[in-house]
Amino acid sequence: MRTKILPIALALVALGCSSPGPDTDPVHAPLGVATAIEAPVASAASSTEKVARRDVALVVHASGRSWVVLDAAPDPTWEAGSPALVGDDVEGTVAVARTVDASKVSAVAKESVGRRVRLLGRHGVACEATIDGLAILGRVAPDGDVYARWRGEARDEADRPLPAPPKSDIANEAWDLAEGARTLVGSLGSMSGRCDEATFAVAQLGQVVIHPREASDETRRAALLAFRALPEHQSHARDYAEEADDTLSGVPWDSRDEAMPVVETLAQGDQELVWVSAGAGGGCGDFSAQLSALFRKTPRGLEVVRVLDGWALELSAVVVHAERGERPATDAYELMFPEARTRATEGEDVERLNVAAFGCAC
């Protein structure tokens, strides 16, 4: 059974550092930052439970600001103060935050404040910053009517303009709507670099981060053959064939209209991974498909490592959870995306940061 993409929130700490390289970033000694934490997560059995220690975390961006995600299921008792809007909305998504009671948050969260961190993106180290505070952040994309009311663009039954509510009222309403999409975050200050380009951070000593690069023509041809031979690709091809007109006859679904599959390589030592990702169609009743796959080069050709059906996000990097010089097993690879991540092991859930979304995009 192939992986199902699950929109679940992610709770981890982004504390660490690395030095940039053309394709591979070895991670050196942490800048006085804890290399792993225990993060509480929601549980049916209890309000919180301890999960395995992790050393890689995501970075979240909202309203032109960046934060380190410390806990994806913060205890409501940690909240303090009233909700407040965070800057301006961005493309219909509103961010709202509350301060925290520092005496109640986890020890790891407290110890994070004041520490210098390095954040990474698709092209290596994006920035350095200091975690200068804690907050609980919620994000919501309200439906059109609510959004228009918040912006002062709504009208009453007599078609008269309605004034926008006070920002405090909007913040309270947005906070309620963001239930299930709130995270404990560390705010960033004293930044150098472009933190808005960061997607994740690492902390474990000796880890390696591999950044993608464009594949050669030969690799691209071989990868597309392997990609299009996948059962998932062929399933989408059958759906596509039912809708494609004569002008598209013979054109693979992953290349219809303006679509173009992405093929990239990630090399570490004598091992080379190949990432292929494609998305086509607009949905809303019309044909739509997204598919990604990770392959490993072997003497026998490309070997399937992981298939992600319904997925076409840009790959930021692969973090290798193995000792330096050790040949990584499949489960040693962790795929990092903007606000999402998963292990390379087939069947592992994809963990995603969440935005509470309302309304229909069609």
What can you see in these coordinates?
The structure is a single chain. It contains five helices and 22 strands. It is mainly beta and 362 residues long. The chain has two domains: 24-206, no CATH class; 213-315, no CATH class. The strands form four sheets. Strands 1-12-18-19-20-21 form a six-stranded antiparallel beta sheet, with no helix packed on it. Strands 4-5-10-9-8-11 form a six-stranded antiparallel barrel. Strands 13-14-15-16-17 form a five-stranded antiparallel beta sheet, with helices on one face. Residues 3-54 have low confidence and may be disordered.
Sequence-ordered SSE layout with sheet pairings:
Layout: E1 24-26, E2 40-41, E3 49-50, E4 56-62, E5 65-71, E6 79-85, E7 94-100, H1 107-112, E8 116-121, E9 124-141, H2 144-150, H3 167-177, E10 182-193, E11 198-202, E12 208-210, E13 213-214, H4 217-228, H5 231-243, E14 262-268, E15 271-280, E16 289-298, E17 301-309, E18 317-320, E19 333-337, E20 340-343, E21 351-352, E22 356-357
Parallel strand pairs: 9-22
Antiparallel strand pairs: 1-12, 2-3, 4-5, 4-11, 5-10, 6-7, 7-9, 8-9, 8-11, 9-10, 12-18, 13-14, 14-15, 15-16, 16-17, 18-19, 19-20, 20-21
